[in-house]
Amino acid sequence: RADLRLGTRIAVMRAGGLALALRGDPVARLMHRPWRLDPYPTYARLRADAAAAGGVARSRTGISAVATHETCTAVLRDRRFGVRLADGRMPFDPTSDTERSGAGADGRDASTPTSEQDPTDPGTALIEPIDLSLLALDPPDHTRLRRLAQPTFAPKRLEQYRQSARKVTGRLLDDAAARGTFDLTADLAAPLPISVIAELLAIPDVDTPRFARWGRALGAALDGVRSVRHAHALARATADLRLLFADLVERRRADPGEDVISQLVHALDEETVTLGELVSLAQLLLVAGFETTTNLVGNAVRALQASGSWDDLVADPGIAPAVVEETLRYDPPVQLTARFAHEDVEIGGRRLRKDSGVLVLLASAGRDPAAHADPDRFDVHREQTTAHLAFSGGVHYCLGAALARMEGEVALEMLAERMPRLRPAGRMRPRVATVLRGPQRFPVRVG
Ligand code: HEM
């Protein structure tokens, strides 16, 4: 019966959104096929609507959107916006109330479990479905947790990760070359970041297909739960992850290392982090660093092939960093994020009421002609005069940006060196999603 109720709720929400999309509401269109397959014309319409409406496009869904480089940057940097509602509650959470949300005296999230809870007990709600840790926290909790995760991304560690990324990519390309035709996503773009994150979290004997499954279920949840089947996959993925990280915490306690989990276990013992926060942060690192980077590699190869600039990369693999930057501007893996006004705010001449939500269309900012000349052209020799927003901005700026760039560079450089005659070998199947964008299946031939 619970499944039936959930199924009915999902169907009603989808039908309502689709009705608005069909009536020409561009914000609603972003959530529905076929507009999700190519959202760029919708972004252009939203930029035009926003220009007419003073910078903010409104939807009958009640959600607003900012679509230009200027307004996206302004919202991301403005401390009057947060990822939660003004009183600390999570948006769209019908079960959350003020008491649960930790508007309490210590300012901590009361829904976050304490270190006394047993993370292996399936009855313990250690991870609410799709608990996004840092991404769902405003300062000061956000600042405290982010500081704990930051040393993992120190530049000196990047070199060590680069060496192992090169080794793993070499091995993956050897296997792919032996087959002649392979799936760029499943055989290179997904396993590479999984192995780098496994090293970052010092997870022994990583089971790549299982990680890929978890990543897909959690990544898809960024768009909301879309079916009962997905709800089950999500519940399974979060339960599996809870067990994995609970086990890792115990191992690191007994035998600490240099990795991020060991640092967090130390913080746990010092009581600067709770067990629930630790587990959800580790889960975020896993998800944030995996599906996104997979899509970066896929989107780059797709754009290189479609624009005829693959041969430019083959002629000079040293341009891989420029290809990565241009892909991040032209077709970024994370298309949008959301913020909520903590007070009445005026943006681009429009007033947004306290607690109203605004979609920040990061991918649209990259195609804004006011910020980038000839923005719909993929140009690997482009002089990047304005920063793209693919890694967001403000306090939530992507912690793994340098790592993601490095992985993208290694994958593209080695692919061009080792497979200069790489060509598509069938129909690319895109992921049909609103937040994450990239090829789900990308058959290619070595040459
Ligand atoms: C945050 C994009 C790779 C870890 C973010 C945000 C974006 C983003 C847009 C901010 C969302 C918001 O403002 O609401 C990307 C892209 C990647 C990538 C496009 C690959 C091309 C990675 C990697 C890691 C990582 C490799 C780590 C292993 C994080 C973390 C946050 C974050 C921890 C949360 C930061 C905070 O809230 O303070 N990422 N990311 N990301 N990313 Fe990435």
TrEMBL record:
> Which Pfam family is one of this chain's hits?
p450
Which PROSITE patterns does the record cross-reference, listed alphabetically? CYTOCHROME_P450 (PS00086)
The family database entries (CDD domains) matched by this protein are listed as: CYP164-like
Annotated segments matching region Disordered: 87-125
Alphabetized UniProt keyword annotations: Heme, Iron, Metal-binding, Monooxygenase, Oxidoreductase
Q: Which domain of life is it from?
A: Bacteria
InterPro entries xrefs? Cyt_P450, Cyt_P450_B, Cyt_P450_CS, Cyt_P450_sf
Protein family membership: Belongs to the cytochrome P450 family.
Could you tell me what this protein is called? Answer: Cytochrome P450
| Native source organism of the sequence | Actinomycetospora chlora
